[in-house]
Amino acid sequence: GAVVSQHPSWVICKSGTSVKIECRSLDFQATTMFWYRQFPKQSLMLMATSNEGSKATYEQGVEKDKFLINHASLTLSTLTVTSAHPEDSSFYICSAERGRGLGNEQFFGPGTRLTVL
Amino acid sequence: LAKTTQPISMDSYEGQEVNITCSHNNIATNDYITWYQQFPSQGPRFIIQGYKTKVTNEVASLFIPADRKSSTLSLPRVSLSDTAVYYCLVGDHSSASKIIFGSGTRLSIRP
Asked: How far is B65 from chain A (nearest CA, A)?
């Protein structure tokens, strides 16, 4: 099946620093990728839709200047958490959409655990 | 976007068949029904997808009645490793479209 990777798998940083998370579709091209955030014992919350070659579309309540998304190629999207604070600590998951005959299917990355001290 | 409703949690035993039902009363004509499985600290994993009637793969079966207002994920002969959160998603998969996760069903399998 299709594979989506994320790097790093976990990161610990100091408050005020910026952290970049990469999402790659390894064996297919994805014009659309999605970024989610998940807090403990909660469901995934969609943060933004990342489109190759254009600006990301953010969900209501998600600060676009804090969570910078760049979809530079058909296989790579990056999420940068700028000036991270402890409340940004969460599990960040990306997904990439692959078209199929009957419809599109989303493949999820393994997630990145961000801990801000 | 069609909203989905699932039981918050379910318990079962190894070897049993588990059926998780999801309600999606406002499902649209172009919407597909997709189920994902998520283990702790991992990304969701695709289980099965369907549009109507019944779909079966090597992992599960998906039953969708004619009105498509609900669907049932059936896991045959579960094992301890099936303990996970299961999400029912409804979305227009004919084009790039965001999918909103509901609360999911936390399934616990006991020996």
From this structure: 19
